[in-house]
Design goal:
globular; about 30% helix; 31 strands; Rossmann fold; N-terminal domain of TfIIb; disordered N terminus; binds iron/sulfur cluster; 4 domains; Dimethylsulfoxide Reductase, domain 2; about 700 residues; 7-stranded mixed beta sheet; alpha/beta; 6-stranded mixed beta sheet
């Protein structure tokens, strides 16, 4: 049985999950009560396996919470009421034009999402720069893995989540997973780790908590949150001291080693133990396991990346790979396990503040000229780089200096997902005008002047780029509710109202063809990728510059993407987190995800099966800390930082350090973890420090503090 180019086999539409960056393949079949998910064994990444989120994905489409018609608010304080599409689009165009007319183009902001298809991300960036002429565009993918992107660009001259397919993992000798919990965030990927171990390889997990993934490991190191940079430096120190460096590789394929070596030698194992809490023998064991085989990998995720020193932390792990010759060789290297469904493609095609399509820099005159020619505009008319995501949100409102007065938001829910969320919510409320495109009435959509109900996932076709750099096609399987339109149609309708009647197609295939031309010659070159090829080949890895090019599953085997072809060491030093514990805030909070919920929960909180599995937030804490606080399992705990207070039931477990508490971040209201988190930014990636802040914890209704 073969699939046609429309991806239909016996009435089953071959597509991919709407959620995380693994982009599991799945089939969709029309059943008596909507779409049924069927396994897609032939897709090589997940080989038929799905987590509960994927299995229940169609439930969101039929959810009673689904928006099915535009809503508008007549006054800022008034209720949202139903409206026609022409009225709603007129209102959005007028709101954006009024802010631009009164305060200039940069008074209009655009905020996108890492779940948008490549076509939408591309069109949104073009809309911001060509129609609105604003520099103020960024997206929530900035919160996802921008530190890994910055470190990858520095070291390798290119940022792609994984420079090799996941299928290479079982063929390496050792994997270090840093701050990653795929057993909960992307369970079908765990089979690669179990296959690694079945093949005789070893798995090291570095995480302050003993997670489900850590339980699979040969070695689990539990450093204090915010100290994994020191841990990497300590390992590199031992690598040098024990003679595990690959001098030939360093000489032939890298630059900058002496300064990096010197920085590592200042981090004695005993010093690293004092900083991290990881005993020296465990550090030595990690080095022994990593250096024993011929090939090894380091994979990072949000743990090391979501820190105010995230770029340096990832850089330290890359340095470890380079010093041992574990990069640019088969079954070796550094990779980032990207989180959001299109976190990778979303940053390649122009919704990031500093980038143009094809991963081109907005400050590069040649890049500006190329993209401007595709868009039919003068390069001089393209704005420069704007604010990063948190800085953009922080600048919203009439009372902010050089404030953004009107915002178009697409596919994001920052009221729940942004750091210092109560402040961000206040900034959003201070806007003159807010328009939100979403599938459900998210917490952010409920603050909007206009809400535009859009199609999603199985109701539309589009491409996404997985964490492997594999460009995939999600196909339409069902018609959307009659009152919904695609984001592309929304942008086309707004562009026409704002004086650009052409140039914004609502046909994703047409948009993708334009994206291919805009990306041609760029770092993320999609010029040779077509919908037909993706269908025939089950995805095409970028770069793929011509139709004849096979795509690039493995990067850097011959040379790195730097001008001289060498990978660059970057000397880094450990430094404390932006907030360290003190008398008033003596504990550390770290945040993360749970298996049954996804990101801000805007969609998964609407699915009964997922809510039954993960109904609400909690505070995980160690039994000794619980005893000190006099708190029992399930009792409400208040977690308080300099920014605010979140309340959730205690979950007592020996799987967490005694100096640390953990909260998942999927819920709004009093259990909103991001009320507490710290927006301190990494100086390079502008990534907020979600993963560590100082807190005090009390029983919510009085009691001892800890
Ligand atoms: Fe979807 Fe990710 Fe679950 Fe796969 S692992 S089914 S892509 S949420």
């Amino acid at each position: 049985m073969s699939a046609d180019t429309a991806g239909t086999v016996s009435s089953i539409t071959q597509t991919h999950c709407p959620y995380c960056a693994l982009q599991c393949g799945m089939g969709l079949r029309r059943g008596a009560h909507g779409l049924d998910v069927v396994p897609r064994e032939a897709f090589p990444v997940n080989r038929g396996a799905l987590c509960g989120k994927g299995q229940n994905a169609p439930a969101v489409l039929a959810s009673g919470a689904r928006l099915t018609g535009p809503l508008v608010r007549d006054t800022r304080e008034g209720p949202l009421r139903p409206a026609t599409w022409p009225e709603a689009l007129d209102r959005v165009a007028a709101g954006l034009a009024a802010a631009r007319g009164r305060h200039g183009p940069d008074a209009v902001g655009v905020f996108g999402g890492g779940g948008l298809t490549n076509e939408k991300a591309y069109a949104l960036g073009k809309f911001a720069r060509v129609v609105l002429r604003t520099s103020q565009i960024d997206y929530n993918g900035r919160f996802c893995m921008s530190s890994a992107a910055a470190a990858g660009n520095k070291a390798f001259g290119l940022d792609r989540g994984l420079p090799f397919p996941l299928a290479d993992i079982p063929r390496t000798g050792c994997v270090i997973l840093v701050g990653s919990n795929p057993a909960e965030t992307m369970p079908p990927a765990v089979r690669y780790l179990t296959e690694l171990r079945a093949n005789g390889g070893t798995l090291i997990v570095i995480d302050p908590r003993r997670t489900r993934t850590a339980e699979l490991a040969d070695l689990h190191l539990a450093p204090r949150p915010g100290t994994d940079l020191a841990l990497a430096l300590g390992m590199l120190h031992l690598v040098v001291a024990q003679g595990h460096t690959d001098e030939a590789f360093i000489a032939e394929r890298t630059s900058g080693w002496p300064a990096t070596r010197a920085a590592a030698m200042a981090h004695w194992p005993e010093l690293v133990e004092r900083i991290t809490g990881v005993p020296v023998p465990a550090l030595r064991e990690a080095v022994r396991m990593f250096c024993a085989p011929q090939a090894a990998m380091v994979l990072t995720a949000r743990g090391p990346e979501q820190q105010a020193k995230g770029t340096d932390t990832v850089g330290a792990w890359i340095n470890l790979c380079l010093a041992t010759g574990r990069a640019g060789r088969p079954y070796s290297g550094y990779g980032c396990l990207t989180g959001q469904g299109n976190g990778q493609g979303g940053r390649e095609h122009g919704q990031k503040a500093d980038q143009l399509p094809g991963y081109r820099s907005l400050t590069d005159p040649a890049a500006r000229a190329h993209v401007a020619a595709v868009w039919g505009v003068d390069p001089a008319d393209l704005p420069g780089p704007g604010r990063s995501a948190y800085e953009l949100l922080d600048a919203l409102g009439r009372d902010a200096p050089d404030g953004i007065r009107a915002l178009l938001l697409m596919g994001s829910n920052p009221v729940v997902s942004a750091p210092r969320a109560a402040h961000v919510e206040q900034r959003i409320r201070a806007l003159d005008f807010l328009a939100v495109c979403d599938v459900v009435a998210s917490e952010t959509a409920l603050l909007a002047d206009v809400v535009l109900p859009v199609t999603q996932w199985a109701e539309e076709t589009g491409t996404l780029t997985s964490l492997e750099g594999r460009v995939l096609l999600r196909r339409k399987a069902v018609d959307p509710p009659p009152g919904c339109r695609s984001d592309l149609a929304v942008l086309g309708g707004l562009a026409a109202r704002l004086g650009h009647p052409t140039g914004f197609s609502e046909d994703p295939a047409e948009v993708f063809d334009e994206l291919r031309r805009a990306s041609a010659g760029g770092v993320a070159d999609y010029a040779g990728i077509t919908y037909g090829r993706i269908a025939a080949e089950d995805g095409v890895f970028w770069p793929c510059p011509t139709p004849e090019h096979p795509g690039t599953p493995r990067l850097f085997l011959d040379r790195f993407a730097t001008p001289d072809g060498r990978a660059r060491f970057t000397p880094v030093e450990h430094r404390p987190s932006a907030e360290e514990p003190c008398a008033e805030y003596p504990l550390l909070l770290t945040t993360g995800r749970v298996l049954a919920q996804y990101q801000s929960g805007a969609q998964t909180r609407r699915v009964a099966e997922l809510n039954a599995a993960a109904p609400g937030p909690f505070v995980q804490l160690h039994p000794r800390l619980a005893a000190r606080l006099g708190v029992a399992e399930g009792e409400p705990l208040a977690v308080v930082s300099r920014r605010g207070r979140a309340v959730a039931p205690a979950r007592i477990s020996t799987d967490i350090r005694q100096d640390t508490v953990f909260m998942p971040f999927h819920w709004p209201g009093e259990g909103r973890a991001n009320t507490v988190t710290n927006p301190a930014l990494d100086p390079t990636s502008r990534m907020p420090e979600f993963k560590v802040c100082a807190v005090r914890v009390t029983r919510a209704e009085g009691g001892a503090e800890g």
